[in-house]
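@channel anyone free to eyeball this complex?
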Amino acid sequence: MSRPPRTSSTITKKLLVLTSALTLTACSQAPATQEGTQTASAPQTGFPVTVENCGRELTFDRPPSKVVTGYHPSLETLLALGLSDRIAGRTFFGESAFLPGQKEQYDKIPQISETIMLPQKEVMLAQGADFVLDNAMAGFDTAGGYAGVAELDAAGSPVYILGGWCSPEETLQYTLDKTFTDLRNLGKIFGVSERAEKLVGALQGSLADAKKRVEGRTPVKVLATDGGKGPVNAYGGSGVTNQMITAAGGVNVLADVKGDYTEVSVEEVSAAQPEAVLVSDYATLRGEDMPSSPAKAEEAFAIAKNSPAAKEKRYLALPVAAQHPGYRNILAITDIAAFLHPDAFTR
Amino acid sequence: MTSEIQQDVTTTSTVNRRGRFGMLVVVLVVAMVASTWLAVSIGAVPVALPQAWGIVADGIVPGLVPRTWTPVQEQIVWEFRLPRALLALLVGAGLAVVGAVLQALVRNPLADPFLLGISSGASFGAVTVFILGVSALGGLSMSAAAFAGSLLALALVYALAQRSGRLTPSRLVLAGVALAYLFQAAYSFVLQAAQSGRAAQQVLFWLMGSLGGARWHLLPLPAVVLAAGVTYLLLQHRPLNAIAAGEETAVSLGVNVNRFRLTLFVLTSLLVGVLVATSGAIAFVGLIVPHAARLLVGADHRRVLPVTALLGAVFLQLVDIAARTVNAPQELALSIVTALFGVPFFLWLLRRRSVDRAVSVQ
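replying in thread with the prediction:
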């Protein structure tokens, strides 16, 4: 983050301390449950469980203990549920900073892919995972050399996609509720419904707090962009980013544009007159140095040069991982709210 | 093919055709002005015509008309639409002329500006900078990297295609096509290694061509290069006709075939490098527009070149208007629209002319 407003980062820290505290409590409770599953091969109480995901029914006879995670928000979510000891393999993450306390756990988990994507089919199937969690279908595209959902199913590795991002069309239909559904489903799958409810409660609490703080305030006109000199890579009126802006007391100036991540005319961006800009922040290719967000913000300001946002150079670098279903997206709403309405967060 | 082209050259030199050629040029110039007028008048954000034209007039002669527009409208028309419309003319004309020259150079009706691997080299340069960051190629910007990539491709194609300093059409085509595949493989690898859906979407858009980044400061280079290139080619229309007719004809007409081929190869490569660096790889224009021009005026390059340039300019202007208005405010990549609009037009032209039996395509 290049120029985060002071207030927002403190809020995030507070909230993160809250959630990590929750995680720690959850962790300390974990061994009891864990022992139960390991000593007795007999079905654990409450199992089998069945959840629905991407139009498929996934049934678990026991909580998964050899999990593979894909794009980083999927790992973050399991870590937040105190499930780091169940994860047998994860992908690389170097796009942006880790959530507090998660880097240490990340380091302990074997890395099975040096990119943000799942490994190729053979490596993937060789993991012998009993559960696979990812953010989108791209990592299961057989044409791309990945193991397909059906192949993994047949190998005993059921696949769960967060946020209902089962197809490009469905990513447009994301609502914040889907994240809470995911957390509850994961709670069921791992037999940790109590922790899941706690996390849901904490997240809903922070969401409600943010909403309450910005309530009644004039929504700030926001442009969410990923840079570009023309056309502009920007976020339209459908999908997770638009939902986050709305919840944070903003209004997406491209709300009329159908689409989530799309190419928008420079004319539209110039005429949109944003008051604030959100810039997707991420380092490409293995986290090597590519400080992209300041440059992308400058591109947006040059195009919308007559806008209030450009005059004040007002932007927030938003980690792109937070623009995906997980649980960081809910935390980021508070960051965005504090950025858009600093007065509401003075205390 | 040889005899047909020679035939065309003879049939085109009739008085009747000369009159028609003049008419055609006038019609195309009017179409160019009209399409540019349209391009400045419409866009994703509506700007009323009096304002749009007031802004253009004010930009040319400050204070000519009273200001009745907002700064945003001024920016949209003066900083985005007008440079974009002018760039569309330049790129359309440039790609079409390069296509016409390459078709003559390698004596192949399927030749287009991307045949000799130059655009793939440019794309490789651009993708590398895009994915690996500006530092990867010593701080080059994306378009500078694209141009560097096209120069690299040019050098490689020349090294592969020449035999003791002589270029032959078949070697040029083979070396160009082979290197195009090599560069495509290279940039696909970089793209896949990055494994970023966002980067892939952005790069794909760029590869398929867009004029969306047009600004005033991007115009002088392609304008100067294109003007110099087209002027040179027009002056060389005789040797161009000769090598299009065949090596023996050219030699018998006193053309230094080898040197002329090399000149054309370097000239077209530089033009493609500059154009691709500005606007990405826009397909179809360079392949079809020269054929359309030949259908209209025969095979004499003195006529083919100006008509090709004008036709290419008008065509790309219309295509770009469609690309930014059909799905506004989202934009379409130009290569999608060039084919969608170009193919029906070309088929119609082909059908009409073949009935007339006036000229044959090949």
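from a first look: Confidence is low (pLDDT under 50) at residues 1-13, 355-362 of chain B.
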